[in-house]
Amino acid sequence: MKVNRLLIALIAVSTLLYLSVTGSYKVLQSDSALEIVDFSLSNPKINGNQIPSNPDKIPLYGDLHVHTKYSFDAYIFGVTSTPYDAYKYATGEAIKHPLGYDMKLKEPLDFYAVTDHGFYMGMVENYADTSSEISKQEWSKPFHNLNRPENITLQSGPERANIFSSVLTQAIIQPYPLWHPRVIQAWLTKNLQLALTSFDYDIHKSAWADVANAAEEFNNPGKFTTFIGYEFTTSTAVEGGNLHRNVIFNSSNAPIRPWTRIDSLNPEDLWTWMDGLRERGVDSLAMPHNSNGSNGQMFEVETFRGNPIDVDYSEKRMRNEPVVEITQVKGTSDTHPLLSPDDEWADFEIMDKRVGSRPPAYSMPQGGYVRDAYLRGLTLDWKQQGNPYKFGLIGSSDTHTGAGSFDEENYWSKVGILDGTAQGRASVPLTDERIDQLTQYSAAYNQPPSTQKIEGRTYADTGFEQWGASGLAVAWAEENTRDSIFKAFKRKETFATTGTRLAVRFFAGYDMNAIELDSENMVQEAYAKGVTMGADLFASDNQTPQFLVWAQRDKNGAPLQRIQIIKGWVENGSGTPHETVYDVACSDGLVVDPLTNRCPDNGARVNINDCSISDDAGAVELKTTWTDPKFDPTIKAFYYVRVLENPTCRWSTWDAVKAGVTPRPDLHQTIQERGWSSPIWYIPEQSKIDINIL
């Protein structure tokens, strides 16, 4: 052992001497994750004084979770769309799905961010390119010519699934020997990726630069906003808990490379890196997503290393993660029926599997949903450990085709080839031909059966039926620019939707009842008299606050059915957490029952045969002021809004209707599209020292 260590030391010293003599040492030193690059264009789009601005703020709708060909999983499943294609899609153009059909939005978005996986960004495409140097390694052969047009077929799906689940893992775990110069270079530059034979730093940086350059090319202040960003794809070392985050930057300045799971699995190290960039003038935000698939580990009551959470940890987390993605294609993370048994709307787009688990493994709900996280945050705060879960809410898609699918009627897929058809999504029965193909696949790759029988019909057994056409991030911003939208994220004046473009305002204060709800000055008065979503409301002489809430329907969606306010609090004496759901505004002139806190049924119905909906029920807008009937001025609490539309057909039902078959019986046939505001936190008198660190 001593001889080996001596040998490694001699090699290291010799290498350092060589680098010093050749002048390469400084080059290597500068090539780190903290090196800043200005990706701005030489001739950027500048609208100057033409940028419209509204001091009362406008809702801007976007998607901050988009993958293209540079993501290892997207490319494996046939996606060849570029970041440029993704931005074309967001601005209203049609782009092609890997299976050849058009993907197009009903109306353009206001902002968008391509967030390809930082982990192995751009590498798989080069494994497939037989002209590349890295493709000449033996382990790369299964990837060769993977996405030539003739190879992007539905029949290739099973082979691609095997490459993803088996081949990829073996391909990327290819380190150089400890004495190799690349290992020493990796150590010197704190860039551990360099120590892997499967990794080419130039390819990686080129892909990252292309992601950044595409964002710069399409950023159009006042009209369409883009952000340079990527996904930090990490997990717990045991039990496979998803800890994924998307990271976006506030300007054209960004690091030379993304920080990835190879640098560290620990999200706390990501925050340290972000703090380091912030000291260099580059601000960024990390946005956790798919907490529902984290096996209860996204919102833990201890740190990644198992230490107690303290105030420093809480402040660091909130400084870097002020918003969380509550809904996307892999399910909704509001709450779970096991966590909220008294919430009739808790069983909504639940994905109960851990993200990426092979074979699929159950994901523990506690610690994996945002409402539970809010309660945990109050509990930790009650224990004087700070509140690391005082975050706002957004939605996004997590599309891996470059094109978010937000519309239940036209849901095309998340992944690409695997779920690009109704049969692949398991929403309609398989044909005999597809049953034979999947049976052969299972035998060829020694996999468990990939089909299932449900009431005499055979469906694919993929888990994709748990996915949904969701969601959107919405920012209340003065103007459609990077600066304005980024500031909205920082102050958490944001809300999430399942893809619908409804709008919701939420205010709290001590004089809200004095505001005339039909006044054209309602919003200005609400801002003047109180605080809005994402903020703290401090106690004022034991007064009882009032909440003002307003919602407006999506012109292309279903009418509104009700507005709810969800309250959570912790008992002062015991630290016991509680939650309650209040209906506060009903459609069709209906009145909330004070005994049940629920609106009566408004009679809205869906015709499952053709997915038509009631045209005589629901509201264009709902607004009201509300007072908590059980308000206690001494208890910290949070309040957030959930807006529900009338029921409509779920995407799986739409698939069945289009195919002319009966909807799958074990799936929800309808859904209620919805939106969630960021909370308002009430802070009692004795806690006025508490501050919003953002």
What composes the largest sheet?
11 strands, mixed
Uncertain runs = 1-31, 688-694
- Tell how many strands the DSSP assignment holds: 31
- Gyration radius, to the nearest Å? 26 Å
Structural class: alpha+beta
Features of the shown structure:
single chain, 694 residues, alpha+beta, 4 domains, 11-stranded mixed beta sheet, 4-stranded antiparallel beta sheet, 31 strands, 24% helix, 20% strand, disordered N terminus, disordered C terminus
Task: Write up this protein.
The protein has 694 residues and is α+β, with helices and mostly antiparallel strands. It folds into four domains: 2-30; 48-410, no CATH class; 432-461, no CATH class; 502-687, no CATH class. The protein contains 15 helices and 31 strands. Strands 2, 5, 6, 16, 17, 20, 22, 23, 27, 30 and 31 form an eleven-stranded mixed beta sheet that branches. The longest helix is centred in the first third of the chain and has 21 residues, at 2-22. Mean pLDDT is 91; it is low at 1-31 and 688-694.
Topology record:
Layout (H helix, E strand, L loop, with lengths): L1 H21 L1 H7 L5 E3 L19 E9 L5 H5 L6 H8 L4 E2 L5 E2 L7 E4 L8 H6 L28 H16 L8 H9 L11 H18 L6 E2 L2 E4 L12 E5 L3 E3 L11 H13 L4 E5 L22 H10 L2 E6 L2 E2 L37 H13 L9 E4 L36 H13 L6 E4 L2 E4 L11 E6 L4 H10 L2 E4 L5 E7 L12 H8 E3 L3 E3 L7 E7 L7 E11 L6 E10 L19 E2 L4 E2 L7 E6 L10 E9 L2 E2 L1 H9 L10 E2 L2 E4 L2 E4 L11
Parallel strand pairs: 2-5, 5-6, 11-13, 20-31
Antiparallel strand pairs: 1-9, 2-16, 3-4, 7-8, 8-10, 11-12, 14-15, 16-17, 17-30, 18-19, 18-21, 21-26, 22-23, 22-27, 24-25, 27-30, 27-31, 28-29
